[in-house]
């Protein structure tokens, strides 16, 4: 049996990488923006789950418990990351050559505003 020899031309040829379409700073800003929006979404979901769990599992007399305190701390974190993500949304979209679709932009704004709406609902309920 004979082994096939690979062509030395194929082995010595270096692959040509395409230059990035966006500057690295813009790419980094886009990643930071998307992480802020994703973190806000996760935090809002966890806050809602903690609030519902505390309401279902704890008696009505003991409203000042650890779960609601932790939920309040996470809500504060969601407000901070959502505010940063909301501020960065128009900045990122104006700096990029290729903008995100309108549905992504609207979803990002809705997610960024959701902790503020949740805070307003909790304050109005108190």
From TrEMBL:
The keyword Transmembrane helix belongs to this UniProt entry's keyword annotation: yes
Keyword Transmembrane: yes
Transmembrane segments: 31-53, 73-92, 104-124
Keywords, comma-separated and alphabetical: Membrane, Transmembrane, Transmembrane helix
Superkingdom per UniProt: Bacteria
UniProt name for this protein: Uncharacterized protein
């Amino acid at each position: 049996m004979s082994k096939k020899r690979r062509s030395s031309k194929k082995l010595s040829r270096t692959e040509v990488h395409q230059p990035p379409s966006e500057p690295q700073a813009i790419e980094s800003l886009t990643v930071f923006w998307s992480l802020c929006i994703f973190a806000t979404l996760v935090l809002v979901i966890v806050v809602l789950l903690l609030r519902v769990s505390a309401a279902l599992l704890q008696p009505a007399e003991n409203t000042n418990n650890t779960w609601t305190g932790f939920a309040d701390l996470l809500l504060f974190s969601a407000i901070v990351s959502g505010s940063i993500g909301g501020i960065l949304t128009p900045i990122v979209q104006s700096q990029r050559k290729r903008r995100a679709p309108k549905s992504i932009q609207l979803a990002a704004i809705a997610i960024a505003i959701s902790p503020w709406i949740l805070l307003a609902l909790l304050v109005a309920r108190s």
